[in-house]
Amino acid sequence: MLLRFALPSFVSLISLATAYHVLSDETLRHLPGPGHDFDIHKGSLLAPILVPRVSGTEGNAAVRQHFLDFFSSQLPEWRVELHNSTSTTPVSKGNEVPFVNIIATRDPPTSRPGDVSRLALVAHYDSKYTPEGFIGATDSAAPCAMLMHVARSIDAALSKKWAHGGPDMVDAEHKGVQIILLDGEEAFRSWTDTDSLYGARWDTWFHHSTYVTNRAAVRSQRTGSRLTTQRHQHIAPLSIRSSFLSSSISLVRKILGYRHTSRPPTGPINTWPRQKTVCEALG
């Protein structure tokens, strides 16, 4: 019984490992550098993020606008979505705090909605509530700037590759790229299952619910039964797949809280991380 469940996971890891090869020194030397964009005082990518940016504050909103302006002005081919949620926190005195996740996606022009796998690069952009004035240069301003640099560096190459390809121009396992900037990773008081990962928990729950609902809608159509709840009425069956469930490889660090808890977060958030996360690398 154990072998039956373990073998598919092992085979998938073997397939993943054989899909890549070691980069040569020559290749690494030709990778585009950020120039002065990572300068902590004037760098166009990093400097605007090096401010206190606690979720729900003006600093957080300003950094979010920095990301939106970047994609709008420099990467217009990327589709940007804002996923909004609210939650009370241990320090909000019963008031709802807004959390906004940013998901920027670049898919091949021939890809169909709901039928694309992606390489997802993830970091969080909020900073800690305490100590006051905390900036969090490595946690996680710098990783966010790195992801912006990565997106900009590969954009032209993606366009060139897709422009000269046919319907099957991209490997079925890696069709698109997704940059996910999560809000509300930091705990406001102390790290618990409920005081941490606000944006990640909501987004994963939402997409998991959407995916399950879509499957239920398809089953109802096949059997002729009717779905009567409002949530089911407004979702086109399988036309929207989870941003997380569509990601075949994800590079994540700290986002899921594994460095702060003795076990992965509980609840629906377990579905995506356990199946999709290959290694912890950024954030």
Question: What would you note in describing this structure?
Answer:
With 283 residues, the chain is an alpha/beta fold. The chain has a single domain (34-279), classed as Aminopeptidase (3-Layer(aba) Sandwich), CATH 3.40.630. It contains seven helices and six strands. A six-stranded mixed β-sheet has the order 1-2-4-3-5-6, sandwiched between helices. α7 (271-276) links the parallel β5 (247-251) and β6 (277-279). The longest helix is centred in the middle third of the chain and has 27 residues, at 137-163. It is globular and about 55 Å long. The relative contact order is 0.14.
Question: Order of strands in the sheet with the most strands?
Answer: 1-2-4-3-5-6
Number of helices: 7
Radius of gyration: 20 Å
Instruction: Classify the helix fraction into a percent range.
Output: 25-40%
Cα shape: globular
**Sheet having the most strands:** 6 strands, mixed
Portion in strands: 5-15%
Briefly note the structural class of the backbone.
alpha/beta
Key features?
Aminopeptidase; 283 residues; single chain; globular; 6 strands; alpha/beta; disordered N terminus
Task: Summarize the topology.
Elements: H1 2-18, H2 25-29, H3 58-74, E1 79-87, E2 97-106, E3 118-124, H4 137-163, E4 176-182, H5 198-223, H6 230-233, E5 247-251, H7 271-276, E6 277-279
Parallel strand pairs: 3-4, 3-5, 5-6
Antiparallel strand pairs: 1-2, 2-4
